[in-house]
Design goal:
It is a single chain. The protein is mainly α. About 50% of the residues lie in helices and about 0% in strands. Helix 1 runs antiparallel to helix 4 and helix 2 packs across helix 4. The longest helix is centred in the middle third of the chain and has 23 residues.
Length: about 130
């Protein structure tokens, strides 16, 4: 499932979508907020330029929106339906879930977005 060459591997690990040999991020830990969006300019193995065009990752905002909606629905269903909480508590759980998981959703959205446009090529040469 997470074998090298799969899109899921690249998305979940944050590795280069073309060669999957190195992380796209300067710091792999998304909880270091000062370096959350800091990325390498290009891959040292396959020379893929991560910022394909200026403001490329603005499109990841749409992916992030979708992920946050899914997260909100999951938090609401978990709180309201499974734990039988009040509506007010369910909405508070949505806010808390979105705040806590913000750095992970932000990176995941970027990983998904770049993987939409770049395919894995194991035999790519510089």
């Amino acid at each position: 499932m997470l074998k090298k060459g799969s899109k899921l591997n690249s998305i979940l690990t944050g590795s280069c979508p073309r060669c999957q040999n190195e992380s796209m991020y300067l710091d792999k830990n998304p909880l270091h907020f000062s370096k959350l969006l800091s990325m390498h300019e290009k891959c040292s193995h396959c020379d893929l330029k991560y910022q394909i065009e200026p403001s490329f990752f603005y499109g990841a905002m749409y992916v992030s929106y979708g992920l946050n909606v899914a997260l909100s629905v999951a938090a609401f269903i978990t709180s309201f339906v499974i734990f039988n909480s009040s509506i007010k508590t369910a909405f508070i759980s949505i806010i808390i879930a979105n705040i806590i998981l913000f750095p992970f959703v932000l990176r995941l959205a970027r990983n998904i977005y770049i993987n939409i446009f770049i395919a894995y090529k194991p035999d790519f040469k510089k």
